[in-house]
Amino acid sequence: MKYLAFPKKKQQRVASEVFKATRRDFLKAGSALAGGFVLGVSLFSCDSKGNKKGSFAPNVYLKISDSGQVIIIAHRSEMGQGIRTSLPLVVADELGADWGKVQIVQAEGDEKKYGNQNTDGSFSIRMFYKPMREAGAVAKQLLIQVAAKRWDVPVSECETESSQVIHKASGRKIGFGELAGEAAELPVPAAKDIKLKSREQFSIIGRATSIIDLPAITSGQAVFGIDAAVEGMKVAVIKRCPVVGGSVKSFTDEKTRAVPGVLQVVSIKGAGLPATLNKPLAGVAVIAENTWAAIKGRDLLEVNWDLGPNASYDSNQQIKELVEKVSGGEGTPRRSRGDFKSASANAKKIIERTYIAPHLAHATMEPPCALAVVKDGFCEIWACTQNPQGARDVVAEVLGFAVEKVKVNVTLLGGGFGRKSKPDFIVEAAMLAKQTGLPIKVQWTREDDIHHDYFHALSVQHVIATIDKDNKLSGWNHHIAYPSISATSDISVMQPDDGEMMLGAVDFPYDVPAIRIETHDAKTQLRVGWLRSVRNIPQVFAIATMLDEIAEARGMDPVSHALDLLGADRNITFNEEIVKGTYPNYGEDIANYPWETRRMKAVIERVAKESEWGKKLPKGYGLGFAAHKSFLTYVACVVQVTVDASGKISIPHVHYAVDCGTAVNIDRVKSQFEGGAQFAASFALKSAITFKSGRVEQNNFDGYEIIRMPESPKEIHVHIIDSEDKPTGVGEPPVPPFAPALCNAVYAATGKRVYQLPIKLNG
Amino acid sequence: MANYSISVNGKQHTVEALEDMPLLWVLRDLIGLKGTKFGCGVAQCGACTVHLNDTAVRSCSVPVSAVGENKITTIEGLSEHGDHPLQLAWQKYLVPQCGYCQTGQIMNAAALLKSNPKPSEDEIEQTMAGNLCRCGTYNRIKAAILTASSGSKS
């Protein structure tokens, strides 16, 4: 048994410093920023006293050209969350820029220039909100200094608005462009002298702002990974080994080569085992003049595989084995409080349930694809990637190039959800481009995507709850088993890692005297990765449906029950009860981002009020409740269902209350919650991946179903807690509480408890 | 391989293609119109929706040899300046998230409004059932269609 530590990525950023970019920095930042007045922001990791650690490395850039054009670099990947809009608008607001005329330039992948760019974990806004504000504020202060000197008025009498400095008393105005040259010569103010706007002064932050790519998207002009092209580009479609860890023994390609347009057939050596989080699977690539010829050629390939040790993998069998394991005895303790054995011995009532959830595929609407050109010892990539730096590093490693010899351009992503954090498909393109000397676009088909994803792994959990003679919840014992993400990199890993346990298991916030959380072995025979909110999905499914059952057993209303169990207002740290290691808190110091029961109770009370919790409903209707904090954002959810005689579930209303601190772009917070509910409705009602003989049994959207408009949740009401607190992410937090709230609503409507996803009411 | 002359957005294009090459790949790879997206290849997701005359079809499942004299319209040809009532309604409701499926959604909705200018909510839901959106923009899509239609029976 082994589990790996988490997180491995750098997330601890608590200080920043604005600097004026030198000529050298311009060169590093590329041609988009050459000349003009350019500001960077540097982020530092700090020790507990706030002293800088590590070296000075500029990252985010803002430019004001002599013509007054404000250019803001978007260094995070856009996949529908709106980040290409929401971070630049923060800069623009502080600066006083004319938002309608700001130009957004997408950054290539380069850690030295832009800092961490891995767009996952719902932390772009959390990490970059303050530095972006500071960049805008510094630029504004310098521009005002130049104007005030010109007019011979105090700086305190000047303001910025619509990309102009304005002297209200005299009505004078000067455009940024006329000031930029001189502003560039001034020293950057010390951190303590940077004046940020007060909340009342915001003109864009906290409102509903349209995404910058909207007209391009609705007119079909937006460029996704699939749309990237260069002169002479060829298309590769790959037949990959159906079993993870297998390899190519031999192949026959006569029929393939007979397809007009097919140019070459090339074998790809895969990572083998461990499958890794960044390298390709073994396969045979068909390179053709166009996508259709490549697909046809690929389908005609005959490959003789060595399927390797996972060829007997059967996911239903694994579920059966794990059910035995989690309900059959002690596992590895991960969190321990009080004495569960004694709680159990003294219990008046014991509730014991097993929860099962299947493997899931991301199924981004845009299947993975990447374009690579390798020429004169340099590799240039265009790809729909959440993680351009990770892609750059692994491409350099695989090609044997220095990192500086690889450039990764980021397109729009047609969905990400964690799938496009893994650069395996980009490595395929780079390897093929190097080997053939041709510009190669690798195109995954939907079948490729469903068969060869980095899956969200199945899970089996067993929860034992004890209720004492005073009708108190006296003990909570949660047993957990699933294939770990860490095992994709290290096949000896048999149990969930600390990062996975942080996601809704060990951070069980309820004030129960005895808590015991244990994990059990589960073998990993597929590629496992993170999918929107990751392990929060199954863990909160088990916890929040069990709490509903406990509330009923105790004769309490589920909402009052949750408020009661959260206990007194307090900040929870978990650390002293974690058996090994510390609570990761999504990479943030828990002193800066405490777990506050007060805020959780506030979202619960809000959602209860807005959803008219407790109201009488007609027969066949039900309301269900669940609440969960993930990615540092507090969420409570009430789902209303109707269930007809045939067992068909409809979802007329969903209410969310969310506390994400300062909501930067109200509309995109709402859209993430609307989408989060639909995403969760898919796996709650429809989706499942199964393996038989090591192979995925589903092929396309007919077998792997996601929710369609007629059955989708209808009215999704998002209630945002008004807050000036530090902003936290909203991409993932809507997802975890939805499925258990839905299951609890189904119970309220039908009297049937749900222990397995997706929900099947009949049979 | 054969030569096919097809009408796309009012313009005649001659392409050399295998007879079974789906219209989707003809549009994207041979003609260079990339607003039409690939999602599944088997008419399950609607990302590749275009109009064949006035009817919405899944271009991934229409072989080029079947197009004949029929007129094809893609998102690029739906309106001259991206200002079809549906495109404007899409902007009003800030419908897209990632945006990938949206051109197919708009084309499907445009065909619906041509045949049924005042669809009910239920008619919208049934017609749009073939268009998947993984980001979950369905409710805004419906609101946009209702607004763009000249009124709804609801």
Biggest beta sheet summary of chain B: 5 strands, mixed
The CATH homologous superfamily of the largest domain in chain B is named Beta-grasp domain
As a percent range, the share of strand residues of chain A is: 15-25%
| Unreliable runs of chain A | 1-14, 53-58
Mean pLDDT of chain A: 93
Q: Name the CATH class of the largest domain in chain B.
A: Alpha Beta
Evaluate the radius of gyration of chain B: 15 Å
Largest interface: A-B, 69 and 59 residues
Number of strands of chain B: 5
Shape, per Cα inertia axes of chain A:
globular
> What is the terminal separation of chain B in angstroms?
49 Å
What is the spatial order of strands in the main beta sheet of chain B? 2-1-5-3-4
- What is the number of independent domains of chain B? 2
Helix content of chain A: 25-40%
CA-atom Rg of chain A in angstroms? 27 Å
* Overall morphology of chain B: globular
Note poorly predicted spans of chain B: none
Q: Report the CATH topology name of the largest domain in chain B.
A: Ubiquitin-like (UB roll)
Query: Assembly state here?
Result: heterodimer
InterPro entries (chain B): 2Fe-2S-bd, 2Fe-2S-bd_dom_sf, 2Fe-2S_ferredoxin-like_sf, 2Fe-2S_ferredoxin-type, 2Fe2S_fd_BS, Beta-grasp_dom_sf, Diverse_Oxidoreductases
Protein name (chain B): Isoquinoline 1-oxidoreductase alpha subunit
Organism (chain B): Dyadobacter fermentans
Domain 2Fe-2S ferredoxin-type (chain B): 2-78
Structural notes for this entry:
The complex is a heterodimer of chains A (763) and B (154). Chain A has 763 residues and is of the alpha+beta class. Chain A has three domains: 2-218, Aldehyde oxidase/xanthine dehydrogenase, molybdopterin binding domain (Aldehyde Oxidoreductase, domain 4, 2-Layer Sandwich); 225-309 and 368-443, Aldehyde oxidase/xanthine dehydrogenase, molybdopterin binding domain (Aldehyde Oxidoreductase, domain 4); 315-361 and 454-750, Aldehyde oxidase/xanthine dehydrogenase, molybdopterin binding domain (Aldehyde Oxidoreductase, domain 4). Chain A is 27% helix and 24% strand. Chain A contains 19 helices and 31 strands. In chain A, the strands form eight sheets. A seven-stranded mixed sheet of chain A has the order 12-13-10-20-17-18-19. The longest helix of chain A is centred in the N-terminal third of the chain and has 28 residues, at 124-151. The model of chain A is unreliable at 1-14 and 53-58 (pLDDT under 50). Chain B is α+β, with helices and mostly antiparallel strands and 154 residues long. Chain B folds into two domains: 2-74, Ubiquitin-like (UB roll) (Roll); 85-149, Orthogonal Bundle (DNA polymerase, domain 1), CATH 1.10.150.120. Chain B is built from six helices and five strands, in the order ββαβββααααα. Chain B has helices at residues 23-31, 75-78, 85-92, 102-115, 121-128, 138-148, and strands spanning 2-8, 11-17, 49-52, 55-58, 71-73. Chain B has a five-stranded mixed sheet, sandwiched between helices. In chain B, a hairpin with a 2-residue loop joins strand 1 and strand 2 (11-17). In chain B, helix 3 packs across helix 6. The radius of gyration of chain B is 15 Å and the shape is globular. Chain B starts with a strand and ends in a 6-residue tail after the last helix. The relative contact order of chain B is 0.16. At the A-B interface, helix 6, helix 8 and helix 18 of A face helix 1, helix 3, helix 4, helix 5 and helix 6 of B.
